[in-house]
Amino acid sequence: MSKSSLSKLDAPKNITNREKVLNADDFIVSKTDTKGKIIYCNEIFAQMSGYPPADLIGANHNLIRHPEMPRITYKLLWDMVQKKDEFFGFVKNLCADGGYYWVLAYITADLDTNGNIISYTSVRRKANASAIEQILPIYKKLLEIERSGGVEASHKFLYDFLEEHNLGYREFVFNLQLGAKI
Ligand SMILES: Cc1cc2nc3c(=O)[nH]c(=O)nc-3n(C[C@H](O)[C@H](O)[C@H](O)COP(=O)(O)O)c2cc1C
After folding, report:
1. For atom 22 of ligand 1, which residue has the closest CA?
2. How much is the pTM?
3. What residue owns the CA closest to ligand 1's atom 20?
4. Does the C-beta of 82 come closer than 6 Å to ligand 1?
């Protein structure tokens, strides 16, 4: 365990347009405690985020939260995993140098033999370029809505959008990853 884990204060303030692209055969893996503190990450996680692996242990996962991500994504994530549902979603993450990378994230609860949640695990793969292209304006709109109406308003917008397209949230994510045009 490192002597000092990173905190949100260590996140870069200069956000840039430098994109890091994950290899198609790479998996970024991390585990958190029940509060979202990192308890494990693989080498690719450290490489992509640009922090020394040891300093990531104990850091809150929001260290790599990108300011252009709408809050609703994290609300859905936590609501689902706390109910022991699996979460899938497109996430833009912040690198230590102010750059970013896109992933399709899968997050699930880890249970003990009594079914209690003891930790969470996330596995991420490269997001499809056409999915990113389509999700970008939607996230931009959600962020804008959140600035004036909060996360309730962005939740409503997202679910109205899904209803209009006759899609469930998960189906929407999978279709995008498979290259569908929504
Ligand atoms: C297993 C797991 C993995 C997570 N991975 C990420 C991630 O890659 N990027 C991210 O921004 N948040 C991730 N989160 C969500 C963060 O815990 C946090 O809710 C989010 O960054 C928003 O933080 P904030 O509300 O403090 O701004 C993850 C949560 C869990 C449980």
Report:
1. 62
2. 0.96
3. 62
4. no
